[in-house]
Specification:
- With 199 residues, this protein is of the alpha+beta class.
- The longest helix has 18 residues.
- The protein is globular and about 45 Å long.
Length: 199
């Protein structure tokens, strides 16, 4: 197991092919998938053949970027995953996309914000990332709250053409973003970054 980040309550590690079952169970919860597929599960064969290879790819090219499994430090329970992936592979540090998908049992405990803040600190303070973006459905208020708590700000609302639109798609999607300079100013005002115990 490759540990990437340790926060107060979480361990973020690199995903492996052995995580197929955990990802399948995560995507089988209609509450988790509500704003992604309308609640439809992702079959295990799709996870193994398409999802996991796609998620493992960025880490093969950039050791500190990609997708990370999140586990509780106390007991090691699987919480979900975080994404911190280059938008453009040719310029991996120009813009990085932040994402997260957590088990329903982990909602409301601050885990998504905690993991997001740790990845932002790694990206801005250690890797030299210039900009971080995140997107979600306009109606996904829970995910939007996490973005705002992590310091990202609403940039735009936009509409995409989906072949199989789900409930709420008519309201469009939102993009949030945070620039390195703004993160640095916020850290200085708050007295410096915190919440990461080691990497």
């Amino acid at each position: 197991m490759t540990v990437s980040l340790i926060t107060d309550r979480l361990v973020l590690r690199g995903l492996t092919p052995d995580d197929a079952g955990r990802l399948t169970a995560l995507d089988a919860d209609p509450r988790v998938m509500r704003h992604l597929t309308g609640g439809r599960a992702t079959p295990r064969e799709v996870v193994e053949r398409e999802v996991l290879p796609r998620m493992l790819g960025p880490r093969d090219r950039h050791a500190s970027l990609g997708y990370f499994a999140a586990e509780e430090r106390a007991g090691g329970a699987f919480v979900g995953w975080f994404e911190f992936r280059p938008v453009d592979e040719r310029h991996p540090l120009d813009e990085v996309e932040l994402g997260y998908r957590l088990r329903h049992a982990a909602w409301g405990r601050g885990y998504a914000t905690e993991g997001a803040l740790a990845l932002l600190r790694r990206g801005f303070a250690e890797l030299g990332v210039r900009r971080v973006t995140a997107t979600t459905m306009t109606v996904n208020t829970g995910s939007r709250r996490v973005m705002e708590k992590a310091g990202l700000r609403h940039v735009r609302t936009f509409h995409q053409s989906w072949p199989d639109p789900i409930e709420g798609a008519e309201h469009g999607d939102v993009e949030y973003a945070l620039e390195a300079a703004d993160w640095t100013r916020a850290q200085a005002a708050a007295g410096g970054p915190s919440g990461i115990l080691g990497a």
